[in-house]
Amino acid sequence: MPVGNLLLSSSILLTGNSAAKTLRMFNIMNVACISESTYYRHIKSYVNPTIIQHNEVRNSSWMEHEGLKRAIQVVSNARLQIAEIITDRHKQNTAWIRTNLPDSRHYFDIWHVSKGLCKKIDKLAKKKECEDVGEWRQSVSNHMYWCAATTPDGNGRMMQEKWKILPLHIQNIHVNQSSELYKECGHGELEGEARDRLWLQPGSTAAVKLEELVTKPQLLKDISQLSPKYQTSALEAKHSLDLHFVPKHTAFSYWGMYTRLCLSALHYNENADRMQAVTVDGRPRYAIRFPKAKHGGYSVREVKTKATYGYCSSTITKVFAGYEDNSRALKTYMLNLQVNTPPPLAASIERPNREEAINSFISRYNRSSLVN
Ligand SMILES: [Zn+2]
Questions:
Q1: Ligand 1 centroid distance, CA of 81 (Å)
Q2: Its domain of life (predicted)?
Q3: N or C: which end of the chain has fewer CB within 10 A?
């Protein structure tokens, strides 16, 4: 086999690209290259088995479709105790954790709680006499992060009390007489912009409605469970990386999807802890972004050092070593694995008789064209 052919097939998959698009690009450029079926043969026979061996996960359960439950099973199987678990506010998860992990501390990811509340604030700000509420949206979200970040021991009551001063602060009242734990805002004397804010008038519709919103019992309960230290943003980042390797609009075979998710994990593990990049003269680099969720507002992010792709070169080396050593063994390995391939979801659907289905489609089409 020409070296370049296997190299091309491996590289397309390792970079998370689509074979159809990449090969079409070469065709348009009039560059002679392999066909799509050759690509699939290479992947199936040599690249996929190498990646699966490379990941050494062939004996554990295949995919974490059941998410939380299976992930926890894996952790328990390794005889690890879970001291803290951080999730979104999914009710089913919460109930399951309460029953099955009674000794673990369950925290909520702040972003998820904040996102839910911000949506409600946006909705309220559209109502009559409540427009000013929108001005406070970002402050409300910031305050939520602050409540958790300044309570490193995760004391739920303390976080709640810090939270409860928020509606008062928005009405330019900075003392909470009814609180024993947190009586006074921590900001001291307000100056400049912080003083000239669009304070809500006590008793006004906007103030009353916003206070109702932020003191709802369910929200207060969530606040008491906010994660003070760790958040799930890294997991969200992994999910969006998965989408790069396994785009939702493309159908993959079971093992095609499996290996692409393995690649996503390899990329993630190699790049998760990148340092902040520095400029030529050694200063840390930052970038200003305009996330959609901030409606024209900006956020400042650290710029990380460039991603590395060591896993691509090491996998390619392994593909070639395996092919030269015993290409038949790789094929056999894959064939043995395929015995365990679960049936596709469509397999449980009753298939119509092909000819009948087509005939009925044609006659329906003819009928409708007569009517029109
Ligand atoms: Zn205040």
A1: 41
A2: Eukaryota
A3: C
